[in-house]
From TrEMBL, chain A:
Segments of skewed composition (Basic and acidic residues): 340-361
Organism this protein belongs to: Phytoactinopolyspora alkaliphila
GO biological process: transmembrane transport
Record's keyword terms, sorted: Cell membrane, Membrane, Transmembrane, Transmembrane helix, Transport
Membrane topology: Multi-pass membrane protein
Gene3D superfamilies in the record: MetI-like
Family label: Belongs to the binding-protein-dependent transport system permease family.
A cellular-component GO term for this protein: plasma membrane
Region (Disordered): 331-374
Main location: membrane
Lineage: Bacteria, Bacillati, Actinomycetota, Actinomycetes, Jiangellales
Protein name: ABC transporter permease
Location within or outside the cell: Cell membrane
Presence of the UniProt keyword Plastid in the record: no
Domain ABC transmembrane type-1: 109-304
Automatic annotation (TrEMBL), chain B:
Residues spanning the signal sequence: none
Pfam families linked to this entry: BPD_transp_1, BPD_transp_1_N
Keyword Lipid metabolism: no
Coiled-coil boundaries: none
Family: Belongs to the binding-protein-dependent transport system permease family.
PANTHER family in alphabetical order: DIPEPTIDE TRANSPORT SYSTEM PERMEASE PROTEIN DPPB-RELATED
Subcellular locations according to the entry: Cell membrane
Membrane topology: Multi-pass membrane protein
InterPro entries noted in UniProt: BPD_transp_1_N, MetI-like, MetI-like_sf
Annotated Gene3D superfamilies: MetI-like
GO cellular component, one term: plasma membrane
Taxonomic classification: Bacteria, Bacillati, Actinomycetota, Actinomycetes, Jiangellales
SUPFAM superfamilies in alphabetical order: MetI-like
Name the UniProt record assigns to this protein: ABC transporter permease
Length: 374, 343
């Protein structure tokens, strides 16, 4: 059934020779792919393929791109034509400034991936840390943090990113890290909320109480016991946020507060330049960077939703596996007869391995987190 | 029983309104702190190099930037209560004036986009939820993801190429043709209303034509979000006990879906509408920039480019207030129509 080339672990958790850690990690990555099915699997696999393609483009940009991102002249020193139509030399044409559109789209993938990875790392770190602290410590620390985060959450995402990018550019100038920090400001509150809520409910659990009774220090409880349990909900949000972050980055670039064209190629900036081209019927300067954004965002969204459908216990619908019950022995039959009719377990029919999952599929609550800039 | 319900509604409303005040204060404080961590005082940043040091000092004193940060904070907060957001530095215009003059354009754009999004998103969501897990549902979900994945400025650019440039059906930018804009006297600063007040139907029609592409661009972005929410809510509602009960009583399937499920599926949607105001306003900044639409977003970009902190702070403050107020209003409406919210 599985079409993914990840190791397929057997049921018995047989320790594999050598690095078991790596194997366990690979298994963890493969799990959602193995457990998914139907529309969920389709979304997960399509999304992953798109994202992997974009990642490869980003990594191998120097090999794929025919020219540099700010190169306006060929190796022979001859300037490229401005607004050249797509053709043999420039397959996607050239821009107003004489940049090669194809090369800028390819280099743009690298910029987008770098900025979003940086932003994800920053906001995960801050959001998870603050969420853990707020949820675990409680009291006024919690109240202050919640108030600040709620306030940040109320501001339009793009507006917040613009202001932070604008202020940071006064201090440190533009560039990938400035853009990443601006995006970080937008997503910290989301991680904070999720992690805090999970921490608050997790810290009442018996295992935390036991750890505390045994004299574990707060830091130990937070990072050894709570973090590992709370982190489960992060992959889905991180993937969906990465999609949103690409859009925020492009929005910043479009308004001119992102990365400057000489520092790196950025799709949003290219689209800004392309708007004035439309009047002259020049379509290639805008179409390709725009399509690149759409593909990457779509890939991440599909992947995030696919992950959500397989990993979120409230939403997932598991595969139906036909099972046949062994024939009852005479002794068991007499016992079963004593059980009232309605309590008797189902026999000889397909069993939904997800149990009650089917009944609680897709609550509306999981849908509110997405509302960033676009 | 009825008095108890009314009492709890009143309690809910009072709590919600009382909580509104600290919420707004925190947001305002964050905006203030954000704008003050920037290096240099606003006057020097905006006009440094253009005026002599004495003139700059004089301007600083006039604007109050030589006083302590706490006095400035107090001035800022009390100014908002008096609806005074200061005067812009680069063109000495009261910030509230920006909203008076340019707010109408943004309001026209956002409200028509909202209507378009509702007209497209809600019916599609209801259809997708009803035919869940079929090919049609999958297609509609792809539509939802596509409208989300395409940045508004890219969608706007494609529309400009196709409908303005290639087909020549609609104008591609601005609120109306220059001559028409000059002809209509501004009374309300909402162009379409002004045109009607002037009895100029040609100008009104011209304005509508200019509005279609930007409103459709922004509306499509929101319609995908709306569709997703409505779809999920309908799926949940169709599975609830009372729908099952209605079916068991022999109510026809059409009646079950339309009278029992649809209406209840739309109630939680109202809650989520509040969260979309921020998305709508963020999208409006980009749409205005794409279509050369002279609204608040364009003004924000203009003042950011000229480094006018006072104007930027004022615009952000009012946008934040608008978002928080909208969510307050929606919570209140929601409490009135849905008794479950009050508890």
């Amino acid at each position: 059934m599985a079409t993914v080339t990840q190791p397929m672990p057997g049921p018995g958790r047989t320790p594999v020779k050598g690095s078991t850690r790596v194997v366990r990690l690979l298994r963890g990555i493969a799990r959602p792919y193995r457990n998914s099915h139907g529309v969920g699997r389709f979304m997960l696999v399509t999304g992953t393929v798109l994202v992997v393609l974009m990642l490869l483009t980003a990594v191998f940009a120097p090999l794929i791109a025919t020219f540099g991102f700010s190169q306006v002249a060929g190796a022979d020193g001859q300037r490229f034509m401005n607004h050249a139509e797509p053709g043999a030399e420039h397959i996607f044409g050239t821009t107003t400034q004489g940049f090669d559109v194809f090369s800028r789209v390819v280099w743009g993938a690298r910029t987008a991936v770098t900025v979003v990875l940086l932003a994800l790392a920053f906001s995960l770190f801050l959001g998870v840390l603050l969420g853990l602290i707020a949820g675990f410590v409680g009291r006024w620390v919690d109240r202050v943090l919640v108030m600040v985060m709620d306030a940040l959450f109320a501001l339009p995402a793009l507006l917040l990113a613009i202001v932070v990018a604008f202020l940071l550019s006064e201090y440190v100038g533009g560039g990938a890290s400035t853009a990443a920090l601006a995006i970080t400001a937008v997503y910290v509150p989301q991680y904070f909320r999720v992690v805090r809520a999970a921490t608050v409910s997790a810290k009442e659990q018996t295992y935390v109480e036991a750890a505390r009774a045994m004299g574990a220090r707060p830091a130990t409880i937070m990072f050894r016991y709570l973090l590992t349990n709370v982190i489960q909900s992060v992959p889905v949000i991180a993937t969906l946020n990465a999609a949103d972050a690409i859009l925020t980055l492009a929005g910043l670039g479009f308004l001119g507060y992102g990365i400057q064209p000489t520092e790196a190629a950025e799709w949003g900036y290219d689209l800004q330049r392309a708007v004035s081209d439309t009047g002259a019927g020049i379509w290639w300067t805008g179409l390709y960077p725009g399509l690149a954004i759409v593909l990457l965002v779509m890939g991440l969204t599909l992947m995030g939703e696919g992950l959500n459908e397989t990993m979120n216990p409230a939403i997932r619908v598991r595969r139906l596996i036909p099972i046949s019950m062994p024939e009852l022995t005479a002794a068991q039959r007499t016992k079963a007869a004593q059980v009232p009719e309605r309590d008797r377990p189902g026999q000889d029919r397909p069993v939904d391995t997800g149990g009650e999952d089917r009944n609680s599929r897709e609550p509306g609550s999981g849908e509110t987190g997405k509302g960033g800039a676009a | 029983m009825s008095t108890r319900t009314a009492g709890s509604l009143r309690t809910y409303l009072i709590t919600r309104v009382v909580l509104f005040v600290p919420q707004v204060l925190v947001i305002l404080t964050i905006v203030f702190v954000l704008m003050r961590v920037a290096p240099g005082d606003p006057v020097t940043v905006a006009l440094g190099g253009q005026r002599s040091p004495e003139q700059l000092a004089q301007l600083r004193a006039a604007a109050g930037y030589d006083r302590s940060i706490f006095v400035q904070y107090w001035e800022y907060i009390s100014g908002i209560v008096r609806f005074d957001l200061g005067t812009t530095i680069v063109d000495s215009r009261p910030v509230t004036q920006i909203f008076k003059v340019n707010g109408g354009a943004t309001l026209t754009l956002t409200s028509s986009a909202l209507v378009i999004a509702l007209l497209i998103g809600v019916p599609l969501g209801l259809i997708a939820g009803r035919v869940r897990d079929t090919g049609l549902d999958a297609g509609l979900r792809v539509f939802g993801i596509l409208t989300y994945a395409a940045p508004v400025f890219f969608l706007g650019l494609i529309f400009q190429l196709v409908f303005a440039r290639n087909l020549g059906w609609l104008p591609s930018s601005s609120q109306a043709s220059p001559l028409v804009l000059a002809r209509v006297p501004s009374e309300t600063n909402i162009f379409l209303v002004d045109a009607l007040l002037a009895g100029d139907s040609a100008a009104f029609w011209n304005g509508v034509q200019h509005l279609i592409l930007p409103a459709l661009t922004l509306g499509l972005l929101l319609s995908g979000v709306f569709m997703r929410i409505v779809r999920i809510n309908l799926i949940q509602t169709l599975r609830s006990d009372y729908v099952e009960a209605a079916r068991a009583r022999g109510v026809s399937e059409g009646n079950v879906v339309i009278r029992h499920a649809f209406r209840n599926a739309l109630v939680p949607f109202v809650t989520i509408l509040g969260l979309q105001v921020a998305l709508l306003l963020g999208g409006a900044i980009l749409t205005e920039q794409t279509f050369n639409w002279n609204g608040i977003g364009s003004q924000l970009v203009r003042y950011l480019d000229s480094r006018d902190y006072v104007a930027v702070q004022g615009i952000i403050t009012l946008v934040a207030l608008a978002v928080v107020t909208a969510s307050l209003l929606i919570d209140i409406i929601n409490a009135i129509i849905d008794p479950r919210v009050r508890y």
